Structure to design on (487 residues):
């Protein structure tokens, strides 16, 4: 082993090596942050050719390994904080979140038992209690931090499934799936996140178990169609295991009519899960909190903090309205959550999570809330929603730019509309606009579909971006379109 022990520890050599490595990495990041280009513009093929692993028998040492990471990773990374980087629900991060990562990584706490993460366990529990309060749930700590929306949605659907079978006197945990599974359905809107289908497949019920409900002109679940499909399911002898409502669809930012859906779910005794991975940020909003009215009626809720809470990836949470449902997935292991610990009030969070070893990502949200305070947090969340509305009004004034849908959260759907009735041509043109802008390294604009219309998407999460920045981007869109039309 080298003279400098590579393991982080309290020795003088280790501390010195840690400080050197962190300083070298920090300096590289500072220089990277200063570069003007959003992306260096390398293609998939160029990156494949450029990036090669260099695992030698003796090792390169920390300094050389960091230098190679800077050259082959950092320099060719996307600047997510760049004013022209607006394609996805991919946020720039808070400075305090970066500081939290230093503490999380150095301490390497594991959230599966209290004796591996004592203070971290208590902080996470208190944050879950606070998040439940924001949603409108009763006091309690039924919930857990997760890797993000897909995992949280899986937890909601899994517990909905197990509760569904438990009401029939059958334990999925003990005895597995049973009966005619083709008769079990989950409802979600046509605009719901793909993780509904993905998770139903993972749970052994398949894509066919998902019934998609029509959406209205704003991509929100259509209540009339939901009622019709519930009636049709009953007539077909099908049983609806869960209704998944969305508070913030990926493209349109649409929020389903939560209170009305909850009323229907209660009437039919169906579990209601709300995917609020994006829209859940409005829990802190001063202007738009009312968009989430009815969230408190859901049986379970997904929240993400690596979207409009501006935390580093990954950071999400799952909240469960009724703590007794956690018994459906509880498993005891003497080495993690023993009877003895439970009898003596030792909180081991492994019983609440699909993961065993798990990072202390809750620290990022805690430090963010303490550093910014609720008012400043509200301001940067509200900024995106307000900016999207201002951008939409500007788009309406621009020749050859067409607003596809009025914005609801912080996204704007629009397209370049040349004088052509060939919709296939118009769709391809907009796809190519997005591709050319990214390849040039100047901008990252989303390309998606809304009601069959291929369009461009601006996801305006960055609180440092203003209307003038977006006008520059829209000018680039128009210039690129004109170049493509000439070609």
């Amino acid at each position: 082993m080298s003279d400098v022990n590579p393991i982080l520890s309290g020795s003088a050599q280790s501390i010195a090596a840690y400080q050197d490595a962190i300083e070298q990495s920090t300096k590289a990041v500072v220089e990277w942050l200063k570069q003007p280009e959003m992306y260096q513009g390398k293609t998939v093929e160029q990156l494949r050719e450029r990036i090669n692993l260099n695992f030698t028998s003796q090792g390169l040492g920390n300094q050389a390994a960091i230098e190679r990471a800077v050259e082959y990773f950092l320099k060719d990374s996307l600047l997510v904080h760049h004013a022209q980087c607006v394609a996805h629900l991919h946020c720039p991060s808070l400075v305090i979140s970066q500081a939290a990562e230093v503490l999380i990584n150095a301490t390497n706490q594991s959230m599966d038992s209290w004796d591996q993460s004592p203070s971290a366990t208590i902080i996470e529990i208190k944050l879950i209690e606070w998040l439940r309060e924001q949603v409108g749930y009763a006091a309690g700590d039924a919930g857990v931090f997760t890797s993000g929306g897909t995992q949280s949605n899986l937890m909601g659907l899994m517990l909905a499934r197990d509760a569904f079978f438990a009401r029939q006197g059958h334990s999925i945990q003990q005895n597995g799936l049973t009966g005619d599974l083709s008769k079990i359905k989950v409802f979600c809107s046509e605009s719901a996140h793909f993780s509904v289908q993905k998770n139903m497949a993972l749970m052994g019920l398949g894509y066919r178990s998902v019934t998609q409900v029509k959406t209205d002109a704003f991509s929100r679940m259509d209540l009339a169609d939901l009622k019709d499909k519930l009636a049709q399911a009953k007539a077909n002898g099908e049983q609806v295991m869960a209704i998944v409502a969305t508070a913030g669809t990926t493209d349109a930012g649409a929020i389903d009519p939560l209170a009305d859906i909850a009323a229907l779910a209660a009437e039919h005794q169906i579990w209601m899960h709300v995917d609020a991975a994006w829209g859940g940020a409005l829990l802190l909003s001063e202007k738009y909190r009312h968009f989430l009215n009815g969230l408190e009626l859901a049986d379970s809720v997904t929240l993400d903090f690596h979207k409009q809470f501006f935390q580093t990836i990954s950071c999400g949470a799952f909240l469960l309205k009724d703590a007794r449902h956690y018994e459906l997935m509880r498993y005891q292991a003497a080495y993690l959550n023993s009877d003895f610990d439970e009898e003596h009030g030792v909180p081991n969070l492994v019983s609440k999570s699909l993961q065993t070893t798990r990072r202390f990502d809750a620290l990022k949200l805690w430090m963010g809330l303490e550093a910014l305070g609720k008012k400043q947090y509200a301001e940067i969340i509200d900024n995106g929603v307000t900016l999207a509305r201002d951008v939409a009004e500007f788009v309406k004034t621009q020749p050859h730019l067409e607003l596809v849908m009025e914005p609801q959260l912080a996204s704007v759907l629009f397209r370049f509309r040349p004088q052509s009735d060939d919709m296939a041509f118009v769709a391809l043109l907009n796809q190519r606009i997005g591709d050319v802008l990214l390849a040039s390294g100047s901008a990252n604009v989303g390309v998606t579909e809304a009601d069959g219309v291929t369009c461009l998407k601006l996801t305006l999460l960055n609180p440092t971006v203003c209307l003038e920045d977006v006008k520059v981007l829209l000018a680039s869109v128009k210039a690129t379109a004109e170049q493509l039309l000439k070609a």
Residues 1-77 form one domain.
